Amino acid sequence: MAHVVVLGAGLGGTIAAFQLRDQLGAEHEVSVVGKGETFSFVPSNPWVAVGWRDRSSVEVNLRPVFQSRHIGFHSQGAARLHPCERRIELTDGTSLSYDYLVIATGPELAFDEIEGTGPTAVSHSICRIDHALQTKAAVQKLISNPGPVVVGAVQGASCFGPAYEFAFILEKALRDAKVRDRVPMTFVTSEPYIGHLGVDGVGDTKGLLESQLRQNHIKWLCNARVDKVAGGLVHVSEFAEDGVVKRTHELPSSFTMLLPAFRGVAAISGIAGLTNPRGFVLIDKHQRNPTFPEIFAVGVCVAIPPLATTVVPVGVPKTGFMIESMVTATVRNIKRLVNNEAPDAQATWNAVCLADFGDSGVAFVAQPQIPPRNVNWSASGAWVHAAKVGFEKYYLHKMRTGKAEPIYERLALQALGIEKLKEIKIEDPGATAAQ
Description:
Largest sheet: 5 strands, parallel
Low-confidence stretches: 425-435
Structural class: alpha/beta
Oligomer: single chain
Shape: globular
Number of strands: 22
Strand content: 15-25%
Mean pLDDT: 93
Distance between the termini: 36 Å
Number of helices: 10
Helix content: 25-40%
Radius of gyration: 22 Å
């Protein structure tokens, strides 16, 4: 009997646990280590932050779901991973041993790297449900006492989509409250151009997003380094293409929301051979760590180098569908190892994204997410908002029922030509040895 443990109970971890339970026989054990008992649908946080959703509508109690699927659940969280011992030390002092481990922890939010940023400082966040609820209170204050707004993503950030989403959703909420005319808005980003998104754009995301910003009277700054947030000002250095500071800005702000850079969580950071200096997990083409081959990783915790050097550092995003493709490859490879077979699955890392703007939005398909691509498409319209609402309800239904990928989802994706796994090629051991 094998014991497979999933470390993390977010988007990637829950789906990994469901798929492992589907694919492994009843004689094998599947367990999840999470921090708390609740799954929160993070893509809904921009809506929570303006009061369009409440907490209960975007959360799921995982304990009864895991129990119904015969998945063990340890909600006290992890203190430290000990990979040489194949053991996770939990926060209550107990330990959990494993034969195979899937790390799906998500990131630690590096607010401390920039003075004045984060929900315990001056700026606001939508990265977690608690942050979004704090931001909601600040948005209500802004509506009562309108003033200038700064929204964006700082240097080293890799999650740009939600920053754009929140800027436009907030703009719509201010229009609905009839105070938009008293709220100047500036979008600040470390991207080299609007719509770069950490992936050198997808289709015409540059044109689409610039057009949306212009139409909604939102000014923007690119190649921007946020130096600090203090005294009602966001201090920003804007860089020229040669890497020299072109000008500095002191942007007045009554309300500031800046997405931070990410790093690996404390439970896994600094483990030689497992993580890079930033704390992200090193993997091979099979989602497997080279030093500890019984460990796999999926999602935001995975180490992916930037596509190219940019004037201001930007990271590479790990989007929802891209993460699900990592999960599908990982589960297949663990199943093969359990059956004494070699891993053979590689994730496509295809990206399918819906960015909601409150009453419209931008959708894109990148196959794969990292260029060059076979498919490089983007479009905008009111239909994106409707699609995002539908996706939220569908995904939460999957969580509440413990289903990883219903057959109708698989058929729909196949009809669109969107696959989670690359064509599997079995390497000939003899040919490899002869090389």
